[in-house]
């Protein structure tokens, strides 16, 4: 059995794909519904409170996608980190078994990376398709070009996240440590955005780019972050290969 087939079976037979698709599809269907009916729910609740009136503008198509992205961009990325960490971190027995049957660290890690990104991207696309469809049906049309661009940025963010996990796994002592360190690193990125002029360069902004581009955000506003994300993804992959190649089993 080659490593490519082994990785696909790992995702399918361990039901990890269900966790990925479950999160993205759940929020893909729930986000637009929440955006469409939230004002009505709050208005009815306000009507029951004497002397209180709830007045809010009607929902826009941007709200439907923004609701999806705000939720899936958090829990979805968390699930992606967990799934990727489970693939990259290998206990000594499995590491020895795979290394004796695979020529080179690149051939060992590449299937793990591609399969993890492929599964995450497929789940993200499924959830986005659901959110797009429901938003159009319940609220209104969305800018097609911006949506496609936002999807591209979203996939690029997944490439970055999985590469980060791969690099962390080369030094971490366990799967849990890989998950925790990766999450802390991802949480620190938005904090760096508080520094003046840094925010447009941060790869973390690509995670929510789809929600912004569904509205009136500038389509070119995420180019800097995309460039930095592509470069750092390559750096993380190099670090992952070097770290795993010198790691003791």
Notes on the protein architecture:
The protein is mainly α and 249 residues long. It has one domain (3-30, 60-245). It is built from nine helices and no strands. It has helices at 3-13, 16-47, 61-88, 92-99, 105-138, 144-169, 175-192, 209-213, 223-245. The chain is globular, with a radius of gyration of 20 Å. The two termini are 21 Å apart.
Q: Could you say which structural class the secondary elements and strand pairing correspond to? A: mainly alpha
**Count of DSSP H/I helices:** 9
Distance between the ends:
21 Å
Q: What is the arithmetic mean of pLDDT?
A: 85
Structural shape: globular
Number of domains: 1
The share of residues in extended strands comes to under 5%
Instruction: Note poorly predicted spans.
Output: none
Question: Count of DSSP E strands?
Answer: 0
Largest beta sheet, briefly? Answer: none
Query: What percentage of residues falls in helices of 4 or more residues?
Result: over 70%
Radius of gyration over C-alpha positions, nearest whole angstrom:
20 Å
One letter per element, helices H and strands E, the order comes to HHHHHHHHH
